[in-house]
């Protein structure tokens, strides 16, 4: 397959902090340095964009030295944590902003969907907006006319086509907007999490359309999403960005697995030393421990058996007097979906901070086989005291839950239900 | 399968100084017309008088100017009927001022769209120039109607062959408005201060132009300011061609033309430079 997009040494720097105050002077210095052939004094190459550490300079590298190639017909999922540079990469690919260094070459028309309904004017009718939006996305008028009926049909807004879109429900608005974009005549489609909108049925329709586009029509799709399930369904290639650098490239499945492993690795640090948290330093989580019914700490648990989550913390005396104090444990699946949540606030108003730990005892844990991550959260009546996302994780294993020797097939839900059958 | 080589593209950090991307802009010509249409339709949705507002505004301004500057202040109109004299100035000045005002906020007004989709950015200012042209033509027809009316009622109007310079005058005004507007809009992405300057700066500039007085009535001491203003040459030529009054000279017009060309070229250069990265700072 021929290469359609080639990215070489791509970097992008952003100026952080205040822009506009005092920049006249720095602009002048920058210009003066340039005029003498020196390098820009405000661009310090070599700093990574880790938002959890404070940078020395005013410039942050949102993307650093990215290289990759995309072949025709590939559906590429771009994944990474917030702030990893995904959106910046898409913005550069869509030519909304220019890179600081490096270049991208490509073949084929690019349609980018960083947002649905860009340029929609509330006063114009659905019909007028289809034309306007289509033209903004790069379609010729006759192309739009040619596809008009298809677009209206896909969006399901025949009745309202001559009504100003300001009278549309938000669902109709989004459907119409996506419909226009989905019917673009382009060889390369760039999509940024726009599917986070609309109802489930419509999301399915959009994903279906995108799958159709990449598999059936041989178009190239670049897709940024936090929804691993969507990436898994749609993408045959995957790229992981981490702090602005290319961390991994491979098939879609491999990328998702690597991303998940990476997330769990992050949580191997001692909780006390973890800086990736939001705290006021009055209370600090120091440890989290998963135990079985014998009090033995471990990482793997059996579906339907006992699980104790012990959370340790240290608190300063000032906190002893507060009115309420709660500790929450949120359990997420590997795709970041919250599957369950336990909070002391469900049972009591205030835990005793002097005790230094609190245990959640779950007699029968009904989570299905798989890996889970745990978020820790502590709040007093005066606000958030400590908050750590992905503090730790544990695994669930399936072991003859139904006492029949039969196993649950894969991907049949997050929860295992206990049930009897009658006839 | 589409011919892939046909759509070869490249994204780099560098760019050429005077790259107008005309080919790209031409490919988006449908968008240009749709934007002009949008401006026209959207502005007068839910109004009763609709496009009539295009006419009401200059008529009222003319009446006020006739009363204040002609009636109270008694400024010379070179023997022309007051309304005709003022309307000539107002019609021309409005076109220039509207082009400049609207283009000077083009980056800020469209940050939402510019931040999400690529299309040749030049389309936006161009659509402003054309939308305003529609309005200008309507106002011009009103002016011509006034001319016919005053001609029949015996006023001394002498339209002459210099009228043929009119298309050139429009082009110059568009170039000036677009050029200045683009320079200002490019600078306001970083320095917001300029936005404040434009609003009252345009008011002041109007008094430095021969809108409410003829060039001959400008005091000798300050005449150079009025002459240095490139709009003076344009308005004076317009009055001379259509009404037969005013100060026409090829030097004055040539100066305006040169000024417009330079400002237009500078505008394009600055606009092109800013266009690529403004979204990071706006």
TrEMBL record, chain A:
Keywords: ATP-binding, Nucleotide-binding, Transport
Signal peptide coordinates: none
GO cellular component: membrane
Coiled-coil boundaries: none
Residue ranges of domain ABC transporter in the record: 43-268
CDD domains (alphabetical): ABC_KpsT_Wzt (cd03220), Wzt_C-like (cd10147)
An example molecular function term from Gene Ontology annotations: ATP hydrolysis activity
Gene3D superfamilies: abc- transporter (atp binding component) like domain (2.70.50.60), P-loop containing nucleotide triphosphate hydrolases (3.40.50.300)
Top-level lineage group: Bacteria
Record-stated family: Belongs to the ABC transporter superfamily.
This protein's name: Lipopolysaccharide transport system ATP-binding protein
Species of the source: Parafilimonas terrae
Taxonomic lineage from the root: Bacteria, Pseudomonadati, Bacteroidota, Chitinophagia, Chitinophagales
TrEMBL record, chain B:
GO biological-process terms attached to the record: lipopolysaccharide transport
Gene Ontology terms: cellular component: ATP-binding cassette (ABC) transporter complex
Membrane topology, as annotated: Multi-pass membrane protein
Organism of derivation: Parafilimonas terrae
InterPro entries to which the protein is assigned, alphabetical: ABC2_TM, ABC2_TM_bact-type, ABC_2_transport
Transmembrane segments: 52-72, 84-101, 122-150, 162-187, 194-215, 252-271
Presence of the UniProt keyword rRNA processing in the record: no
Keywords carried by this UniProt record: Cell inner membrane, Cell membrane, Membrane, Transmembrane, Transmembrane helix, Transport
Main location: membrane
Name of the featured protein: Transport permease protein
Cellular localization per UniProt: Cell inner membrane; Cell membrane
GO molecular function: ABC-type transporter activity
Family, per entry: Belongs to the ABC-2 integral membrane protein family.
Domain spans labelled ABC transmembrane type-2: 49-274
UniProt key word Zinc-finger: no
């Amino acid at each position: 397959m021929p290469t359609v997009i080639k990215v070489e040494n791509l970097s992008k720097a952003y100026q952080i902090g205040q822009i506009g105050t005092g920049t006249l002077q720095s602009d002048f210095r920058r210009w003066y340095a340039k005029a003498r052939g020196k390098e820009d004094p405000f661009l310090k190459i070599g700093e990574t964009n880790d938002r959890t550490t404070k940078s020395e300079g005013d410039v942050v590298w949102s993307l650093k030295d990215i290289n990759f190639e995309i072949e025709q017909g590939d559906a590429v999922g771009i994944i990474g944590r917030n702030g990893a540079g995904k959106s910046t990469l898409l913005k550069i690919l869509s030519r909304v902003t220019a890179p600081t260094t490096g270049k991208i070459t490509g073949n084929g028309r690019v349609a980018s969907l960083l947002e649905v309904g860009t340029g929609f004017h509330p006063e114009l009718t659905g019909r007028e907006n289809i034309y306007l939006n289509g033209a903004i996305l790069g379609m010729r008028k006759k192309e739009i006319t040619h596809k008009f009926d298809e677009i209206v049909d896909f969006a399901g807004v025949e009745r309202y086509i001559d009504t100003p879109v300001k009278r549309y429900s938000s669902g109709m608005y989004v459907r119409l907007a996506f419909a226009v974009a989905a019917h673009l005549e382009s060889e390369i489609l760039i999509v940024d999490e726009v599917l986070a909108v609309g109802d489930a049925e419509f999301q399915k329709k959009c994903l279906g359309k995108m799958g159709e586009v990449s598999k059936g029509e041989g178009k190239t799709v670049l897709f940024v999403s936090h929804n691993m399930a969507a990436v898994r369904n749609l993408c045959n290639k995957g790229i992981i960005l981490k702090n602005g650098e290319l961390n991994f490239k491979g098939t879609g499945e491999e990328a998702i697995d690597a991303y998940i492993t990476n997330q769990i690795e992050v949580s191997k640090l001692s909780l006390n030393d973890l800086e990736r948290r939001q705290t006021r330093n009055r209370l600090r989580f120091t440890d989290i421990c998963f135990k079985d019914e014998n009090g033995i700490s471990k990482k793997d648990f059996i579906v339907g058996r006992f699980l104790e989550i012990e959370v340790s913390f240290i608190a300063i005396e000032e906190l002893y007097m507060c009115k309420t104090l709660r500790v929450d444990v949120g359990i997420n699946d590997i795709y970041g979906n919250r599957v369950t949540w336990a909070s002391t606030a469900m049972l009591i108003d205030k835990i005793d901070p002097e005790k230094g730990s609190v245990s959640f005892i779950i007699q029968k844990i009904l989570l299905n086989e798989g890996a889970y991550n745990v978020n820790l959260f502590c709040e007093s009546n005066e606000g958030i005291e400590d908050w750590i996302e992905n503090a730790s994780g544990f695994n669930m294993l399936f072991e003859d839950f139904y006492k029949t020797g039969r196993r649950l097939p894969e991907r049949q839900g997050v929860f295992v239900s206990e049930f009897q059958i009658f006839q | 399968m589409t011919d892939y080589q046909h759509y070869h593209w490249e994204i780099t950090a560098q760019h050429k100084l005077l790259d107008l991307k005309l080919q790209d802009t031409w490919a988006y010509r449908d968008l240009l017309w749709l934007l002009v249409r949008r401006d026209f339709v959207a502005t007068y949705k839910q109004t009763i008088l609709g496009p009539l507002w295009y006419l009401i505004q200059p008529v009222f301004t003319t009446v006020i100017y006739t009363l204040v500057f002609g009636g109270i202040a008694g400024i010379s109109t070179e023997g022309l009927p007051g309304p005709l004299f003022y309307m000539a100035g107002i019609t021309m000045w409005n076109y220039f001022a509207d082009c400049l005002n609207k283009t000077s906020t083009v980056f800020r007004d469209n940050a939402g769209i510019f931040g999400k989709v690529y299309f040749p950015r030049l389309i936006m200012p161009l659509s402003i120039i054309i939308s305003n042209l529609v309005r200008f033509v309507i106002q011009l027809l009103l002016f011509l109607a006034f001319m016919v009316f005053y001609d029949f009622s015996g006023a001394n109007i002498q339209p002459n062959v210099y009228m043929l310079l009119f298309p050139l005058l429009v082009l110059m005004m568009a170039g000036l408005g677009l050029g200045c507007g683009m320079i200002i809009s490019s600078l306001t992405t970083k320095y917001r201060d300029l936005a404040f300057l434009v609003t009252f700066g345009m008011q002041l500039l109007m008094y430095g132009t021969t809108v409410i007085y003829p060039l001959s009535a400008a005091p000798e001491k300050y005449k150079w300011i009025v002459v240095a203003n490139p709009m003076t040459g344009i308005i004076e030529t317009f009055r001379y061609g259509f009404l037969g009054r005013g100060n026409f000279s090829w030097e004055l017009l040539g100066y305006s033309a040169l000024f417009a060309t330079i400002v237009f070229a500078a505008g394009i250069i600055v606009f092109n430079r800013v266009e690529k990265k403004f979204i990071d700072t706006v």
